[in-house]
Amino acid sequence: MRKKVLISIVLLLAAIQFIRPARNRNDKITPDDLTVVLVPPEEVRMSLKNACYDCHSNNTDYPWYFEFQPVAWILTWHINEGKSELNFSEYGTYSRRRQTSKLDAIANNIEDGEMPLKSYKILHKDARLRQDQKNLIIKWARNESDRLQSER
Amino acid sequence: MNSSLLFVTLLSLLLCDNTNSRFNENQQTKSAKGIVDVYLQMKDAFAEDNSKGAASAGKKLADALTKFNEPWISEEQKKVFEDIEEDALEHASHIAENSGNIVHQREHFERLSKDIYDLVKSFGGGRELYKISDKTYNNGKGAIWISETKDIKNPYRGKKDLKKGSVQEEIK
């Protein structure tokens, strides 16, 4: 009986390898990208790119293990969730109000340690931001939020 | 003579039948009162450190926002509303989805309060409302909330520091 269950699992795993979700890939930096709209300092731009863009932009850097299911499903789910919350590539299309809300959210989530996700940091060394890197992002995001609001 | 006096008395009683008598029926219905009322429930929940209550109000608020489609709004006003609605909806949804994480909910409440303030300024709240400020909240960044009373019940600090805050504006 146990042998039959094991074989079924192996067969199922083999079968799902043929399901390949579309890749979130667009190598262009569009004019709506946050880094083009707000022009953050280079340090902040690099931190955002390394720690956030995989899930929060139209351009994910896929790892080798994306070739395997159910990993691909899980990653795709994360990417879709991330993009629906905040998409750096489409930041320029947001209303001024939403842009400032998102800047506040970036600052709050990094300060609280909610972002980047723990599971993401385990596998991505570059996403493990140092405290000084985090502080730079937080300070920048809060200043930009105030600036945008005062310009309304 | 007596019946005229009685008539006048009855009439004045009818006209002054509630504390919101400054706001006539027209001002109450042609306003965002429905949305504001739910926001005030959420505010009270936060003041009581009631994360679950705030989440439930978040769900109701999202509902109230999407259902708001009043025939008296001009095309111009519609654009103003939709701008606020888009953002407020996201915050209401986040508050609804994060029962148990009051810190995260309060972060969204901060932005939501700004949206509701703008909403009231543009469309009226249909009742007496005040803008209250907590200047030192969140490491000096500060935050505001809208209240139906001048009585300070801080939704950001709850029991820890309930009376912290000061009335900044009586919203007319």
Please estimate the helix content of chain A.
55-70%
Gyration radius of chain A (Cα, Å) is 19 Å
Helix count of chain B equals 6
Largest interface: A-B, 10 and 13 residues
Structural class of chain B: mainly alpha
Query: Ranges of chain A with pLDDT <50 over ≥5 residues?
Result: none
Anisotropy-based shape of chain B: globular
Average pLDDT of chain A works out at 92
SS content category of chain A? mainly alpha
Helix-strand pattern of chain A: HHHHHHHH
Shape of chain A: elongated
Notes on the protein architecture:
The complex is a heterodimer of chains A (152) and B (172). By secondary structure, chain A is mainly alpha-helical. Chain A has helices at residues 2-16, 34-37, 42-51, 53-56, 71-85, 96-112, 118-123, 131-150. In chain A, helix 3 (42-51) crosses helix 8 (131-150). In chain A, 28% of the residues are buried. The model of chain A has no long low-confidence stretch (mean pLDDT 92). By secondary structure, chain B is mostly helical. Chain B has helices at residues 2-15, 25-29, 33-47, 51-67, 75-97, 102-123; strands spanning 129-134, 143-147, 166-171. Chain B has a 3-stranded antiparallel beta sheet with strand order 2-1-3. The A-B interface holds A 95, 97-98, 101, 104-105, 108, 112, 114, 142 and B 83-84, 86-87, 90-91, 103-104, 107, 110-111, 115, 141.
